[in-house]
Amino acid sequence: MGGKKKLTLKQMERMQKKEPKGKEKGSGGSATEKKVAGIIPPDPRSKEVADQLKKMRVLTPYAVATRFDLRLSVARDFLEELEKQGIVEFVSGSKNIKVYKPSD
Question: Contact at 8 Å (CB) between 97 and 60?
């Protein structure tokens, strides 16, 4: 019923001779390398971190994770720690997302 039809011998020969250049096996390199997100959050007392946080109007775990190249769970914990230290203020949120703003 469905599925790919079987190639003829002539078609198989052509396929083996042709062999596309982009799909060479064993080349080892890839066009884009995957970066692993960091597990260790940056130092909240650092002036550079404080400056970057103040530039952001709204702080969400996703925004912090992308800015500092962190995992989402680490960014969430990082924001909670910053709230305890008084660097950011909790604005609103639900069980899924919390929104913070830099304290003045």
Answer: yes
